[in-house]
Amino acid sequence: MIPEDGLSEEEVMGELEKRLSLDLTFDSGKILGSMCTYPHPLAQKIVRKYMDRNLGDPGLHVGSQKIEREAIQMLGELLHLKKAHGNIVSGGTEANILAVRAFRNVSDVEEPELILPKSAHFSFLKASDLLKVKLVWAKLNKDYSVNVNDVESKISDNTIGIVGIAGTTGLGVVDDIPSLSDLALDYGIPLHVDAAFGGFVIPFAKVLGYELPDFDFKLKGVQSITIDPHKMGMAPIPAGGILFRKKKFVDSISIPAPYLAGGKVSHPMITGTRPGASAIAVWALLKHLGFNGYKEVVREAMENALWFAEQIRALKGIYLIREPMLNIVSFGAKNLKTIERALKDRGWGISAHRGYIRIVMMPHVRREHLEAFLEDLREILATL
Ligand SMILES: Cc1ncc(COP(=O)(O)O)c(C=O)c1O
């Protein structure tokens, strides 16, 4: 109910404090099953200072627009692309929808089909529904990466694109993107890589010595990449990223926005009004942390993942789904639902789905949180 007369600021804040105490917070260390994290302190400052900047009307906020372009160029550099086209968008969902939309728009196929791994994120279901693109699901191998032969067998005259995943949502698996890229080149079909999660992990993990396949624009068949700063990039929500190799993809999804106060522009995204602060924060974090800053974040996350996997392996009654490739560890159990319920009762922010519980080693997850979690897990297992 809207009150007739407004409440005082203290009353409103007090009421909010009470109600929002229901929320789990990232800084509590209890959220182990999310790909989001507590935004970096610099990002918080930036949001407070620049929350009025609207990139939907870039003619008014020319400085913000330049910053966004530079942020995209820096992400391009990280992903081995000299000149990147794209935007900071609302998240991985919007980025994936934009890629599908671009692939559909540059093709002249009447009944468009997209081939994607069974492990793909549900954002592609939204893309399919919105864009009337049929999804053709490719099988997975035993190690949960996409089966490239099955992808090839599903290519038809209606195929407008192929999707590969660099860091699957459930298990953090990186598909064999080099082989998908070869396939894409052989058949003249664009390849989109969903690196919403892995984009801010793989480049650093490789330098740290982890053996991971190439996944980015180094591979000539890769035409677009989703990379989300609001996941492992520690940017504030919302901050997703979509990068295209060629301008023609962006042109194909650009809609004229004629009446803006800052003058006529084109919008190659789903949203109209959108937060400049997000793009500014991405720029600032890339500049502030630099390659080595992110490398250290990934070092800790990967070390936590390997350590945690080792601990899980030692426990009776649960099992690792697969060796972690990135900083995600997922385990299964016969009594998974009971275990999930007991963990939730103890306040842990996790969920069981597709037959496993996944623990994502985000920057807010510290060794002591994992130790406390394991202690609870051991106690629960002992009662089963
Ligand atoms: C691989 C992958 N792609 C896309 C998304 C969607 O991102 P968002 O929730 O930012 O829209 C996710 C989210 O977890 C993801 O794991």
From TrEMBL:
Transmembrane segments: none
Major enzyme class: lyase
One GO molecular-function entry: pyridoxal phosphate binding
Gene Ontology terms describing biological process: carboxylic acid metabolic process; coenzyme A biosynthetic process
EC number: 4.1.1.11
Pathways per UniProt: Cofactor biosynthesis; coenzyme A biosynthesis
Cofactor(s) needed for function: pyridoxal 5'-phosphate
InterPro entries in UniProt: GrpII_AminoAcid_Decarb, MfnA, PyrdxlP-dep_de-COase, PyrdxlP-dep_Trfase, PyrdxlP-dep_Trfase_major, PyrdxlP-dep_Trfase_small, Pyridoxal-P_BS
Taxonomic superkingdom: Archaea
Family (UniProt): Belongs to the group II decarboxylase family. Sphingosine-1-phosphate lyase subfamily. Belongs to the group II decarboxylase family. MfnA subfamily.
Protein's UniProt name: Probable L-aspartate decarboxylase
Organism, as annotated: Palaeococcus pacificus DY20341
UniProt gene name: mfnA
